[in-house]
Automatic annotation (TrEMBL):
Belongs to the TsuA/YedE (TC 9.B.102) family. This is YeeE/YedE family protein. It is found in: Cell inner membrane. Keywords: Cell inner membrane, Cell membrane, Membrane, Transmembrane, Transmembrane helix, Transport. It comes from the Bacteria. The keyword Lipid metabolism does not apply. InterPro entries: Sulf_transp_TsuA/YedE. The chain crosses the membrane at residues 15-38, 50-70, 76-99, 120-141. It is a multi-pass membrane protein. One of its GO terms (cellular component) is plasma membrane.
Length: 144
């Protein structure tokens, strides 16, 4: 299994996520945690910040369309694993988000920028989990 090295695309994505996080904090005083944004939208009660959450989610979904309109090409997504592995991964991420009290954008981007000890520990834990998952998938299971 080959790993794609895309430094410019990664830098651009990081700059966009960082800018969005700073603007959300500066304008609305809110932390940009994608999982928290989505869970707030899926809640049965409509809160005061529902419009902000919906706008952020629509913006995240509209970005590939904007790329298509600007360049004539949409993003290329290649997933070298089966649907079962994707569903299992999603379930495991959901469990981790629940136990960790947030996701990579909330802890990894915003929490670390605020020097939150809890976020620093959470980031170390999910990075260790990612390293271990990649090692097991590629070297123990032979990449599936």
């Amino acid at each position: 299994m080959e790993t794609a090295f895309t430094p410019l695309a990664s830098l651009g994505g990081g700059l966009l996520i960082g800018t969005a996080a700073v603007l959300l904090m500066a304008v609305h005083g809110r932390i940009f945690g994608a999982t928290g944004i989505l869970s707030g939208l899926l809640s049965t009660r409509i809160t005061q910040d529902w419009g902000i959450r919906a706008s952020l989610l629509i913006g995240m979904m509209a970005a590939p369309l904007a790329l298509l309109l600007l360049t004539g090409k949409g993003p290329v997504v290649q997933i070298p694993i089966g649907n079962l592995a994707i569903v299992l991964g999603g379930v495991l991420v959901g469990i981790g988000v629940s136990y960790g009290g947030g996701c990579t954008s909330g802890h990894g981007v915003c929490g670390n920028a605020r020097f939150s000890r809890r976020s620093m520990i959470a980031t170390l834990v999910f990075m260790a989990g990612a390293f271990l998952s990649v090692f097991i998938t590629r070297h123990v299971l032979g990449g599936f």
